[in-house]
Every structure is written in structure tokens, then in C-alpha cells.
Amino acid sequence: MLGEYRIQGHGAAEIAASVERAVGAGELEPGQPLPPMRELAARLGVNPNTVAAAYRTLRERGVIETAGRRGSRVRAKPATTGREQIRVDVPEGVRDVADGSPDPALLPRLAEAFAAAAVQSDGEPVLYGHDPVEPELARLARAALDADGVPDGPVALASGSLDAVERVLMAHLKPGDRVAVEDPGWGSLLDLVPALGLRTLPVGLDDEGPRPDDVRRALESGARALIVTDRAQNPTGAALTAPRARALRSVLREYPETLLIEDDHGHGIVDVPLHPLAGGAHHWAFVRSVAKAWGPDLRLAVFTGDTVTLDRVRGRQRLGPGWVSRLLQRAVVRLWSDGAVDTREVAASYGGRRDALIEALSERGVAAHGRSGMNVWVPVPDETGAVARLLHAGWAVSPGARFRLNAPPGIRITVSTLGAGEVDPLAAAVAAAVGPAPVRTYV
User: Fold this and answer.
1) Which ranges of 266-342 would DSSP assign to H, the alpha helix?
2) Beta strand 301-305 with 178-182: parallel, antiparallel or unpaired?
3) Which terminus of the chain is less hemmed in, N or C, by CB atoms within 10 Å?
4) Rounded to whole angstroms, what are the CA distances from 211 to 189, 247, 402?
5) For residue 78, what are the CA distances in angstroms to 19, 71, 197, 260?
6) Parallel, antiparallel, or unpaired for β 283-289 and 205-206?
7) pTM for the model
8) Edge-to-edge, what's the strand order for the sheet holding 301-305?
9) Cα 234 from Cα 225, distance rounded (Å)
């Protein structure tokens, strides 16, 4: 059943670790069945309850799944492998439009901001027991949230959007709970949910965001949380419109116990207004990262939410990292206060590159999506073939498998560094690689 690999161990932890190592190394492949518990227990000379405990641990970690009488098998996309494994190695001479990073030329210089923050910290050192949030950062962040219509709530910080999302999920959910996620969606998030022992329920979307009927079905099916990207959705560029936001808030009012998490990681690079959903659920969090507009290495996200959620998250933070560096916070305050980034100019730059590529593809009969942000999503009939043909033509794009659960195949193209002279050659290469595609929604 397992080919050459033999599961080893005498305790539940050892058995689980043996399976997890094999999955991570590719010796146990996605979808591969595992031995029945009694059979494996007899082979290892242990009690069947020991194997049952090991399998339970693996399920909670998102490594395996159990389907009743059909037994247990490695998940189709186990958390151990990670979607970052599904990537294209970019050979020398091939143009990389796959990595999802912002344009370094549009990011601010950091030296002056950090120097000023260091001077401030020399005069006002932060010690144990001090407020974890820089007061001026909280004031600026809250003012920006108020301007965008995000409901009032305390301000907290995390080391990036994914860190904030993880902390909020863990504040309310337990292993086995279901989480409704966008499909296609952010690959790291699709890895995180099963890694926390939670189960994903895919929700289809179009250019205006998650489809209300799909969200309703997910909540009817028992999803305890819903994660929505308000703008610059990765990989499709979808952005919530006002009518779609109203429809989704209406659905959430039918299921007020749903934990709502909104990700506005595109803040600072978007050219569409924000339409937040918060207000339709008792427990909610709204997360806003500085990564895309001010620099990925800053590792800072601001988030707000209801008082219960924020109290739970901040209490758990105190027992772990304690706080996000106040030196870093002071540098971000300086960047914000000095207007180090002209967000309208950045949004216009990304929007121009994105729209130019979509138009060039349309002229060649290729349908593409990208309402906001720095990515363009192109549905394709044969994802593997399209990626390979584009690589041969000198373009490295991101395979859609990194972002999909049940959604049809596609490729993601990051336009953040795309030059005006590259648009037509790239569009021609895509058209040759995928052929004309019908206009369709993502699922």
C-alpha cells in the first residue's frame, strides 16, 4: 500500500512524526491511502488506540483526512507540503512575473525613518510592561480606518497579515472547525487553515468578490468563520463593490455567530474604494498590512475588531512574542507621517500596468481578470501546459494550483514590475500558450 516507505514508531507522537516526515519528503504522496489502524498497530506491535491517536494528530495538523469506511489518506494538498512547493524555478534569462512582490522602485527608502525611530527610542526606551502599541501609530491607523468606514474598535498589531489571521482564528476556533475561504485564494492562507487543524470550505468569487449564494451555502454547511479579501484579492484582483458588500452583510446577519475576518492587504496600492463587511457579525477582525505599499520586510499589520476578539488575541500575544517592536512601529509612523509613499501614484502605476495587460490579452481573445492590485488571473484549459509553454517562451508565471481548491485551472501574472514595452510581448506569449478562453467566473 505504501510502496517502499514503512511507517515507524512506538508512541503516537513518533508514528505521527514518521508519517509527517514522509509526506514532507514526498515519500507519501497526496491522496495516498494509509494502512487501517488495526493493521498498522499489528505491524508496529502497538495498541490500536496508539495508532488512532497518531492519526487524530495528523488530521488536526492537516496532513491526512479520514473518509469513514474508505479509511485515511494523505490530504490532496497536505499542510506539510506547503503551496510554496508549487512554483516555477526561473532559469537565467527568463522574465519572472510570478513572484507576487511589489515593485522595489515604488517602495520608500527606510534608512531615514529607522534612524529617526532609533533616536526616539534612545530618548524614550521601551521596557517591559509598556503599552504594546505606539500611541501615534494607533492614532494614525484608527483615523485611516475611520475614513474608510471600518467600525470602531481597539487597535492591535501583528507581524504581518497572516500572523493576524492565525491569531484571530485561534482566538475562536478549535481543531475540526470549518472555515469558508475564497477559491481561488491566497495560497499561504489555504495552507494555514489545515495546518491549524481546521477544515476549508471553498467559496467561489467573481470580479466583485465572494458570491453571496456560495457564502450562504458554506455557512449553512457549518462554517464557523469566513475570510474575505476586500480589495486586491490574490490571485484574481477581485474587489468588493458596494452592492456585493450589502448582499454579503445581509447573509452574515442570517449567521451572526460567524467569525468574520477581512483582509485589506492591498491598502496603499489599490485604486478602488473600500466597502467593509464588519457589522454583520458579532465577532470580527479587519486586518491591514503595510507590506505591499511600504515594504514586505517591515512585517507589520494593523488590525481591529470587536473587544472580545481583540482581548483574546492580545492576551495570547502577551504570553508569546509580547509585542511587535516599538522601534519598528516608530519607523512606520515616520513613513506614514512624512508621506514617504504617494499611495495614489502607486495605485495608478499598478492599475495602469494591470489594465494594459488585460486589454492586450483581450485584443488577442484571451479573457483575464484583475480589477485591483498587482496581479492578473488568466483562466486556462491546461495549467501545466500553459506554464511550461510560457517558460519556454521566456516568461515565468505562477501556476494556479498554488491558489486553488476546487476552482478551474488558471495562471497568475504579477504586473508590479512590468514595463510598457513588455506588455504586448507577454500578451502575445500568453495567447500563444493558452489560446482564446471563454469569459467565465472563477468557478
Assistant:
1) 291-294, 307-318, 326-337
2) unpaired
3) N
4) 19, 9, 21
5) 12, 16, 11, 25
6) unpaired
7) 0.84
8) 155-158, 301-305, 283-289, 259-263, 223-229, 178-182, 199-203
9) 19
